[in-house]
Every structure is written in C-alpha cells, then in structure tokens.
Amino acid sequence: MLTKEQYVDTFVELIRRASTELPPDVVQALEEGREREVDDSLARRALDTILDNVDLARQKSAPICQDTGTPVAWVRYPVGTGTRLLEEAMQEAVKEATAKTFLRPNAVDTLTGKNTGDGSGRAIPFLHFEEWEEPKVEVRLILKGGGCENVGTQYKLPDTRLQAGRNLEGVRRVVLDAVVEAQGKGCAPGVLGVCLGGDRVSGFSESKCQLLRPLPDTNPILELAELEERLLKEANELGIGPMGFGGRTTVLGVKVGVLDRLPASYFVTVSYMCWADRRAAVSLDQEGAVTWLN
Amino acid sequence: MVELKLPMDEKTVRDLKVGASVELTGRMITGRDAAHQWLLEDTRQEVAPFLEGSVIYHCGPVVRQLEDETYEFVAAGPTTSIREEPYQAEVIERYGLRGVISKGGMGLETLEGLRRSGALYLHAVGGAAQVLAQAVKKVERVFMLEEFGVPEALWVIQVEKFPVMVTMDAHGGSLHTEVEAFSKEQFERLLTTSA
Lengths: 294, 195
Prior knowledge:
The complex is a heterodimer of chains A (294) and B (195). With 294 residues, chain A is an alpha+beta fold.
C-alpha cells in the first residue's frame, strides 16, 4: 500500500513532464509538417517558432504553453484499491505543480469569477477511474487547453446542413466541418479525437480518451483505420495551415473511437487538441517502483 | 522584418499591411476576458496611460513572484481573441490603442475598428509561451491582480524584439478572412467529389 505522499510526488513529476516535454511522436509530426510547408511562408515560420518553443520548454523545464489546460487523467487501479486516496493525491499534485509554475492557476469560480489561485477547483483536475486486473496503478494524463476545448463540438446525425447521414460518409462530412469551423482558433495543427455514438457525456469522454493514442498508432478496426487516414489527408487539403495562416499542415492526426448508441441518437463528437498535444503516462507498482510510459 | 518601438503613431500603423513580420520593443499591457469588460464598464484613468499609443496583449501568463516581490513571466503566449470581439473595437477607440496582440484572428467589427482608429491585429504564435516569455524583459507593475487572478490581471511589461505577424491591418485586410474563404471552397470541393 503506497502512501499519499508517494502518489503526490509521482503525479507532480507526471504533470511536469506533460506540461514541459512534448511527446516525441508529436514533435516528429510537427517536423514533418515544417518540411511540407513552402520556404519562408508564414506557415513555415510558425512551425519554426513552435519547434524552437518545444526545445526551449524542455531545456528550461517550463510550460510549453501558458494555458496549461485542464488536467484530465485516466486512472487504472488494482482490485481492492480505493479511488479516494488517488483522487486526493492528484488534487494535491495539481496544487503543488501550480505553486512550482508547471501549471498556471487555471481554475475560476464560475459564479464569482474569482480564480481559486491554486489550480484546483470543482472538476479540475478531472479523473476517470477504471479497476483492472493488474497489480499496479497506471495514470494517463493530458493537459487540455482552453482554446482548443472551445472549438470542440458535437453533431447529431442526420445533419441537414451538411447532408450528413447516419453512416461513415456522414461522419466524414461533419468531422471536416468541425475543422473548417475551428480554423486556426484551436492552435492548428491539431489532433482530432473523435467518438461515434454514445450519449452527450460518453461521447466527449471517449473522444478525449482517443487523444491518449500515439500519433503513429493504427486503429484496430479496419474501417475506422481507413476513415482516420482519409480524414487526415482531407483535413490537410483544407489549406487552413498552422495557426490558420494558410498552408498544408492543418491536422497532425485523427483518432476515432466508437461506442454503441440508442436507436434515436447518432452523435459524432469531436475533441480538438492543439499542437501542444501534452500527454504523459506513468505506472506505479505496489512497492512504489515508477515506470514512465509512452 | 520590421522593427517597431512602442508607443507608435498612426502613420507607422497605416504603413503596415497583412503579411508583414514585426518585432516590437517597448512597453505594452496584457488584458483578456475580464479586463476587456472592466475597461468598458468605466474609463479606467489609472491604466489609460499604458494603453495610449501602445498595444494590448491577449495573454494570461504563468508568473513567478521573486524574493524581492517583483514578478517574472514564466510562460506567456497569446490566448484566442475572438472572445473579445464584442468589446475590442470600442476598447481600441476609447483608449487610443495602436494594436492588439493575439491569436486566431477577429471578426468584422474589430476589422472595421482597426481601419477607423488606425490599429493593427498582430498575431503571435499560439502556444509559443517560452519563445514569447523570453522577449518579456521586465514586469513593471500589475493592475487588478487580486480581483482577476494571475491569468486575467493587467500586467504592464517591457518587451524586446517581441515577434508577431500582421494578420489584420488598418486598411480592411485580413489574412483570416482569406484563409477561411479558401478553406470553405476546399471543403465544398471535398464534399462534392466523393459522396
């Protein structure tokens, strides 16, 4: 049985890594994007700045982006372990990481407008729990920025405006529409987490969970793998480009999950993640040994 | 690359067009959601001198307080500006701003405000919080810190060679309008080519 302090220390380091070190697959996708853009274009210059910034953040161990987002974590825990200690430890870790400036004090009381000051608040951080058979705790964290969260959206099919029916062609139409509507406002080039089906809550939950997948990861469901590939190619034909400056790199990846649905509903939920696609993962065994995961 | 000193005059602003890369040096002030509403509820005489002829930076920084009680910016990229669309043109006009630093572009009301008042929309690279924090040399003072909290307070800062691009100018030009129109054409093409 680990103590709360052991969890807190590990979670602070998890947050630091997420906030300051962009995952290698995302860096690689940004570098490939830069190569695609025309020399001296605004798009190329924006990607140069982005890549310089990624290096600088890592060197200085300082936040890649000042909007350190909502910490959202998926926590898997062994049979017989409660969730309360883990939840308290994550709350404390967020406060400590905020005091150390790995996070910005990012929680505002919605009624009074007052910043809570310590980074934590109601539903901030937000945790998803799942019991599993393994004898260890695994935490997968994303920091979901506000600008990109604001351009996330949910469609219900059929959609008359987009002539989108209840099939994968309909899905394709609405997902591309979401990218067009977002323009550069979600800090393109972004990553799309998409969920087909579910209800209004589970749809957003699953669409965000898709963001945990590394970019080179192939969907095990063949028709979704094909859809992901096609959406990635077509989104990059829209010409929105980095920051919405125009260009060939609008989206770095598309990840699609599927849930069952009611006969009456066919939701397509799109979570947009900015280029600062911050995620980190860790596992702790029962002796407290820590393993950093991809 | 155009180097500009803050504060700047109307002619300097009107000489610049969409697509120009600019480096700013001098004093500016941050302000975002809460600040824009506050600036219009009343004319805030205490901050007016910091706005006149300068630019407002839509930024909610990560800030560290040092032992001598001064502050330093740890991370300081732009926030999405379209939320200030209902307020921006009037803030520019009332306080004599020469520009806005932000990201994501703004709408037609702001574009018209830029034309009328002689001001620029200067786009900083979103998420580039370290590159931009490096250009912030000094935090001079802060307004409304207690009331608004760190991200939404109005921070008066000295910057050196702060890198931005003109994406909306004082002649009605907007890169954002152009890109949006182009992407919508592409979208229509994609929708018709494969059903």
